[in-house]
Amino acid sequence: MRIVTLASLRGAPGVTTTALLLASTLNEAVVVEADLDGGVLAIRYGLGREPGLATLAASGPDVGEGWRAHAQEAGGVPVLVGPDAPTSSAALWRSAGEQITQRIVTGAGTAVVDAGRLRTPGPVVAASDLLLLLVCPVAEQLVALTHVLASLRQSVRGEVAVILVGEGPYRISEVERSIGVPVFAALPQDRDSAESLRTGAGVNTRLARSRLARAVTALGACVNAALVEPVEADVS
Q: Of 212, 214, 149, nearest to 178 (Cα)?
């Protein structure tokens, strides 16, 4: 299974919203809640706490359906829900992170991991084929990014890239030159669409025609291409 992890360094740039929309553009994709501050999808979409990551961790390695037996549907997208309490989420990933990651790695399709605000990369982040960091194109967030990029590139198995969210004084080409990693997309701050997803709307509704959804569809094409062939930043 290919692993694409989305995370932020500070603030709330819409990691969960982007993960849901991105998964809807990829074949055989599932959203994995790996936010140590707790998952939100079960509450948002009225789902049960099980099946989910806890049952996946407890399952045998050769279960026929793999992750599908533990997924629920959130707005038309398969999800592996995690605990909603920070203490429970942290405890699950601390005690069973390796087992969960192994089940995901050996599965079929693409795991879109919602890591929330990234602190120390856990097993599933380290196993990522692609780590996408969501940042606003403003000085304080870009400077914070430069402080952690080197260690993240050493910690993650695959590539590290950036998604710019909202408006700021820096263009994609300027950001790429300054940080030395590729920028995959610049997403608009589409508050109406984001709020609809936060209140439990499906991704296959009128949201599919929104500016945000169209931008994430283009991002999905970049992600697919990067998973086939590694990407390099344009630092010319």
A: 149
